[in-house]
Specification:
The chain is of the alpha+beta class and about 250 residues long. The protein contains 2 helices and 10 strands.
């Protein structure tokens, strides 16, 4: 019974040890590195009390309320790009060039949330309409990957996620624009922007398309898994030696 348990443990480690996460082509999609890796038509301001009062500005913060008295409070320390929406159309909120490869399929995802307004706000509210677009010619032509619409104040602080797949025609650009231009309430946060290469259909390197094989190089355990396996086999050896000792005493 113990032998079966340890062999099953070893097999499970070998089956999972070779899985690797896909690389995000977006340099700073979770904004953990602050105001870095992207461009914007909006003006950056350092986070601070009331720093986000004017329109057409953005900052990086984990709590919208810390930079605007009428925005909602979000708990935790995860950074995000928070934006006071512009009152004129066509301004790029966020943009980055991607090292995509012609003919390769990619998966896109991004999250956004309305941040206006809290209970102290006395006024009316305008929504945002965030459009996520990709282009191979600096947006002379583009494809809309997804749209996130906000409905303040009822959805304030609630993230929505847009996802899509696309096939690159070469190196491409990706951007976010706000299609609406209302003044009060058109305030939002962006986070977790990602573009990931998809494996080709039937690609043997894709662990989701087939069970791992003992001969598959991707099935080789990580160093930490090897350590656990060695400890398991050592425990198995000790158990076998103890069983043999008991057997000799009974003879």
């Amino acid at each position: 019974m113990k032998l079966k348990v340890f062999l099953a443990l070893a097999a499970g480690m070998a089956a999972t040890g070779g899985a690797h996460a896909a690389t995000n082509l977006v340099v700073n999609g979770d904004f953990s590195e602050g105001n870095f890796g992207f461009t914007s038509g909006y003006a950056y301001v350092a986070p601070g009390p009331r720093s986000m009062i004017p329109e057409s500005v953005y900052t990086i913060t984990s709590d919208p309320h810390a930079v605007h008295p009428f925005w909602v409070t979000m708990t935790g320390d995860k950074p995000m790009m928070v934006v006071n929406g512009a009152t004129h159309a066509g301004e790029t909120v966020w943009q980055e060039s991607l090292a995509t490869v012609a003919g390769q399929a990619y998966r896109f995802s991004a999250s956004a949330a309305d941040v206006c307004c809290n209970a102290a706000h006395p006024g009316t509210y305008a929504p945002s309409e965030l459009e996520f677009e990709v282009s191979a010619n600096n947006f002379a032509t583009f494809t809309t990957l997804g749209t996130i619409d906000t409905a303040p104040p009822g959805d304030a602080g609630q993230f929505q996620t847009a996802t899509a797949t696309f096939t690159a025609t070469g190196a491409m650009e990706i951007r976010v624009v706000d299609a609406l231009t209302g003044r009060v309430g058109n305030d939002f946060a962006l986070d977790d922007i990602g573009v990931f290469a998809l494996p080709a259909v039937g690609d043997p390197s894709d662990p989701t398309t087939r069970p791992p094989s003992a001969l598959d190089p991707s099935a080789v355990p990580e160093p930490a898994s090897w350590s656990l396996m060695i400890l398991g086999f050592m425990a198995l050896g000790a158990s076998v030696r103890a069983s043999r000792g008991r057997a000799r005493r009974l003879i």
